[in-house]
Amino acid sequence: MIHLGLIGYPLSHSLSPKLHQAACAAVGLQGEYRLYQVTPGDNDGLAELANAMRKSEIEGLNVTIPHKQAIMPLLDELTASARAIGAVNTLYIKDGKLIGHNTDAPGFLADLKKFMGNAEGEKKALVLGAGGAARAVVYALKNDQWKLTLAVRRADLSQARALIDSFESQAGNGSMNMILLEAGDLAGLAGGINLIVNTTPIGMFPETDFSPWPVGLPFPDGVAVYDVVYNPRQTRLVREARAAGLRATSGLGMLVEQAARSFTCWTGREVPSEVLFAAVEEV
Fold it and tell me: Is the pTM of this model over 0.90?
């Protein structure tokens, strides 16, 4: 029996158990996937789960908001990508050490390419938010040669500056711009934006009536919209983008792609993402 789980708060809804149960079944493993609710700031709760992995009571853990950065000081090592991103979503044991990894970035990029295909010409993206999810998205996009602008609330300006500074210090990464997530600033970006990615939790269940995009502000012409929120399947942002005639998708594909990669970290076995999509498409 392999024991897996997800650390997060709140955990009112998650498709992760169904995904990993399907993955276990696909490779002939017996396994369970539990949800561990840890309140923000509860470092003792995080440390308890980290130690449970070191004692082999749990073979693998996913980490979701708001713990993707808070868990890092409790780990023995970080993979190169997790260190560059500055956030982890996957914990596994290797050579007796508790390793922090990030499968969000490759999971997002894999699903983005399915959604958009291989974008040609100059690629410009507007990323809404500057938290742990934004770090993974920025890492993925910058390594795929996108030019980026962050749009954040006034309260998050220092967080956004820290994100930009950390990526600009890495070799090979170009500069990023930062603007306020307000209609006046966003209106000036209408030309040349290919992609909008929402990395904030705005619109997530149960607060489904909200959107991070300012009310009444038209979307840039021809832009594609990717909302990393997957619950609900069609957020207000996605609904409004589609109503404007734009291509738009939720983060369900990212969830599936990152889950497949996490499962490989824990078990060494690969599961086609199509198997996992089939497990959740009727939920």
Answer: yes
